[in-house]
Amino acid sequence: MKYRIQHKTVYRYTEPVRRSVHELRLAPRSGPLQWVEDWRLTVPGNLTEARDGFGNIVHNFTMAGPAVTIAIAATGEVDVRAVDGDGPAAFHDAPEPGEARVSPLYFLSGTALTQAPPALQSFAAPYLAAGHDLPALLALADGIAGQVRYQSNTTDVGTSAAEAFGRGSGVCQDQAQVMVAACRALGIPARYVSGYFYDPAATAMASHAWADICLDPAQGLWCSIDITHRCVTDTRHVRLAVGRDYTSAAPIRGILEGGAGETLDVEIVITPTD
């Protein structure tokens, strides 16, 4: 599937922002699961581009001067790859020649958002007692989706996996972080993925999140599982960035001087072009 994606984020303030510094992970990269044919970012400042240690494309810009609106737009086309009409169950994600990237084993270490309390470890352990092959991981994802039921407006970006698991509800971000926390607690490298999910029945599109689980660290072999939809990712999924948790894969992060009374509007349009 090939998609045309338009993603616009507008911040508005009742008091002007005097200065701001922004870090964006809003540019997908080509890899084993997708090919980026075109991508452009529009921001109120000069962009610099780099790669982080996870392989993500990272842009930065600084905005000086008073502003009551900050608009950030991303537009492009991505061709999501498939095998015989279905997304591949496992894929090799190795650094490009000359690229420095962390080892898959780096994704064994927890973060403040992905600590697994004893109750979460006890919940996950029976699913992976015989190993972490794909059927076992899908069973765990199904269990997590049932335990942390999807419910909007019950959590925020600072909610940890432990909090979401204890609450029993959350959104895709929380379900992904619970999956990541559970796998890491049982000695399996796992990383958080931010991106888009195309649903032709949806009245409005939104960002999405899921988890990559490492099947073989020595070979850099991964599988990508959407906990919310209880499936291996497929041609409906477009990847933006990976990280240890939400904070290191967030599409937009920023630091402001001034800028009280912030409101946020996000519009995402995903159109199949095939």
UniProtKB/TrEMBL annotation:
Superkingdom per UniProt: Bacteria
Biological process annotations from GO: proteolysis
Domain Transglutaminase-like: 164-229
One MF annotation (Gene Ontology) recorded for this entry: peptidase activity
Hydrolase listed as a keyword: yes
Keywords noted in UniProt: Hydrolase, Protease
Family annotation (InterPro entries): Bac_transglu_N, Papain-like_cys_pep_sf, Transglutaminase-like
Name of the protein: Transglutaminase-like putative cysteine protease
